[in-house]
Design a protein that fits this description.
- By secondary structure, the chain is α+β, with helices and mostly antiparallel strands.
- It has helices spanning 50-54, 59-67; strands at 3-6, 12-15, 34-35.
- A hairpin with a 5-residue loop joins strand 1 (3-6) and strand 2 (12-15).
- It is elongated and about 45 Å long.
Length: 75
Amino acid sequence: MVTIKIRENGPYLVDGEFTLVDHNGNEVPITKRALCRCGGSTIKPFCDGTHSKIGFQGANAAVEKADDGSTPSGS
């Protein structure tokens, strides 16, 4: 079984055996179990910690800030 944990303001952490393939169906070697969610990683699809540097906020935090009229970090 594969479990994917969504870090609050960070990457997707994948636990369990899985295969990662690109858009052409080619297998991508798994070098990390943390997948980028912020879009800023230089080693996509894997996380390199950029989310911390750019102030990435997950969807819930961003929606809460939008609802209260403030601007999410990193925007």
